[in-house]
Design a protein that fits this description.
The complex is a heterodimer of chains A (116) and B (109).
Chain A (H helix, E strand, L loop, with lengths): L4 E3 L2 E4 L5 E6 L6 E7 L6 E7 L2 E4 L8 E4 L6 E5 L8 E8 L10 E2 L3 E5 L1
Parallel strand pairs in A: 2-11
Antiparallel strand pairs in A: 1-3, 3-8, 4-5, 4-9, 5-6, 7-8, 9-10, 9-11
Chain B lengths: L3 E4 L2 E5 L4 E7 L3 E9 L5 E7 L2 E5 L2 E6 L4 E6 L8 E9 L5 E3 L3 E6 L1
Parallel strand pairs in B: 2-11
Antiparallel strand pairs in B: 1-3, 3-8, 4-5, 4-9, 6-7, 7-8, 9-10, 9-11
Classes of the chains: A mainly beta (116), B mainly beta (109).
């Protein structure tokens, strides 16, 4: 079974530039999460999708971050314009329908962003 | 506020030592996960627990729902166990995951 795919693995940009990350979850997983992990900290939820609908985006900095999951499968996370403090690993994770409350969480390899 | 607290933050052990990492949480949960993250790598799920104890090879995870506490044990530790171990809980109310800040383990040969 293929895991959660993310790209790119690494990205270096200058501040005020834009960047986009892509995630393809495990086939059949209705729930998709984007997390931001700053060095030395645990993952912080940015946005949670259930199929193509947003369940929780309360911690997404909406002035510069956007995310979509148009067909309920793969997703993109965009940052525009980037700030220095956006340097982090962006993790995508997926799980089965959360109504299956004990569903396991599967992570991608992450996309490491460095903003100069 | 931190819904999930882990201890210790950093841990160095000699190869062969028995290791314990602790996790306490403050919300009602449907499941607790222990995750492993290697430097530069993605996160791998080690265990998902809702009660009792699970064992996989040299790894053992326990949970006490009444005390809202879980432990991850590594027996006969090895340098390849060096990684960050993260405790995460799935909240019943909102189905959201909360993560601890991780325990960085270094096992010295």
């Amino acid at each position: 079974e293929a895991g959660v795919a993310q790209s790119p693995r690494y990205k270096i940009i200058e501040k005020r530039q834009s960047v986009a990350f892509w995630c393809n979850p495990i086939s059949g997983h209705a729930t998709l999460y984007w997390y931001q992990q700053i060095l030395g900290q645990g993952p912080k939820l940015l946005i949670q999708f259930q199929n193509n609908g947003v369940v929780d985006d309360s911690q997404l900095p909406k002035d510069r971050f956007s995310a979509e999951r148009l067909k309920g499968v793969d997703s993109t996370l965009k940052i525009q314009p980037a700030k220095l403090e956006d340097s982090a690993v962006y993790l995508c994770a997926s799980s089965l329908d959360p109504r299956a409350l004990t569903g396991e969480l599967f992570f991608g390899e992450g996309s490491r962003l460095t903003v100069l | 506020k931190n819904e999930v607290e882990q201890s210790p933050q950093n841990l160095t052990a000699q190869e062969g030592e028995f290791i314990t990492i602790n996790c306490s949480y403050s919300v009602g949960i449907s499941a607790l996960h222990w995750l492993q993250q290697h430097p530069g790598g993605g996160i791998v799920s080690l265990f998902m627990l809702s009660s009792g104890k699970k064992k996989h090879g040299r790894l053992i995870a326990t949970i006490n729902i009444q005390e809202k506490h879980s432990s991850l044990h590594i027996t006969a530790s090895h340098p390849r166990d060096s990684a960050v171990y993260i405790c995460a809980v799935r909240e019943i109310a909102g189905n959201q995951f909360y993560f601890g800040t991780g325990t960085s383990l270094t096992v010295i040969p």
